[in-house]
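Fill in residues.
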């Protein structure tokens, strides 16, 4: 019997309406307002993150309470209600952010008067949620911007470090006098080229160059003159060789050129071009007596072709043997190991 009476009262209230403040509003009206004013916001928020519920009943605390705290962040502000703002002077003390204040704000007369019906209360709850999401999004955006900035700085630092490392590597593997690669780097390059030759079954030739009578130049004109001749030879090789060729100062007046993808016939043509070019390019030096002297030099060149199973040491030994044979046959010539 009591249950039937309770149900009857609830049904009567639903039919007659619900009282909010001094205004009686029917349940149907409230539902319609929620359907018309709240639900569309829920659908639109995915497309427009700036949309909010517009509460026409918003009351401003500083007006209602005749507040004189002009330094309060909410004072005189009609854009954002006080329950969204951090640092307000509600209840005589400074309050935290709206998430911390939310429970207390719902009990505040200002909030209640701003929410005369369930529609406004739901709308303000939705605004609170949207406000929180936007703040989180702004924070995330700031974090993302900071991460992007740090990434740019890191990328720039890595690029600078990489550039510096390349410069250091060039210093480590380069002969300062001639500008060619040094002997230490030769081992790395020739081993790599041997592996490439084996995999692709491509020809590989080592060229060894030895200046003729270079000791006589040093003894006669001084080591400074000898250094200038070596430097000039380095420049000539860089201009004459192909991009795929790599030249090394092997030691003293000896040089090695690794010719990848090149057989003995092609290597001989290139070696002859180098020999003739160098013979026709005399170097002007200043002797130890302070006099200018034009010196013409010649070179002997040995060529050795890589054969399967050879070590880089064996390849260089054959090239060196070819140089020795070229010198023994009168110098200023090219010798191919095992052929000439």
């Amino acid at each position: 019997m009591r249950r039937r009476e309770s149900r009857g009262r609830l049904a009567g209230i639903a039919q007659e309406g619900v009282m909010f403040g001094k205004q009686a509003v029917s349940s149907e009206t409230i539902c319609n307002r929620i359907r018309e004013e709240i639900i569309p916001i829920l659908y639109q928020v995915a497309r427009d993150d700036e949309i909010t519920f517009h509460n026409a009943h918003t009351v401003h605390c500083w007006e209602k309470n005749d507040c004189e705290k002009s330094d309060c962040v909410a004072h005189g502000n009609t854009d954002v209600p006080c329950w969204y703002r951090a640092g307000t002077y509600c209840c005589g003390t400074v309050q935290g952010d709206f998430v911390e204040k939310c429970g207390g704000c719902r009990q505040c007369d200002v909030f209640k008067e701003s929410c005369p019906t369930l529609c406004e209360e739901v709308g303000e709850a939705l605004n609170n949620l949207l406000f929180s999401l936007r703040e989180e999004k702004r924070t995330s955006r700031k974090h993302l911007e900071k991460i992007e900035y740090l990434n740019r700085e890191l990328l720039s630092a890595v690029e600078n470090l990489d550039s510096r490392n390349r410069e250091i590597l060039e210093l480590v593997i380069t002969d300062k006098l001639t500008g060619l690669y040094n002997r230490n780097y030769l081992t790395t390059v020739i081993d790599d080229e041997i592996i490439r030759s084996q995999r692709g079954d491509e020809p590989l030739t080592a060229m060894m160059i030895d200046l003729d009578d270079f000791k006589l130049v040093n003894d006669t004109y001084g080591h400074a003159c000898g250094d200038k001749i070596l430097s000039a030879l380095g420049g000539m090789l860089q201009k004459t060789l192909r991009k795929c060729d790599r030249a090394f100062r092997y030691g003293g007046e000896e040089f090695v050129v690794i010719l990848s993808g090149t057989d003995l016939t092609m290597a001989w043509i290139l070696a002859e071009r180098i020999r003739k070019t160098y013979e026709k390019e005399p170097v002007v030096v200043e002797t130890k007596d302070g006099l200018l002297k034009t010196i013409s030099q010649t070179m002997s060149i040995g060529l050795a072709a890589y054969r399967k199973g050879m070590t880089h040491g064996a390849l260089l030994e054959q090239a060196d043997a070819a140089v020795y044979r070229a010198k023994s046959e009168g110098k200023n010539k090219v010798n191919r190991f095992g052929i000439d």
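Confidence is low (pLDDT under 50) at residues 1-23.
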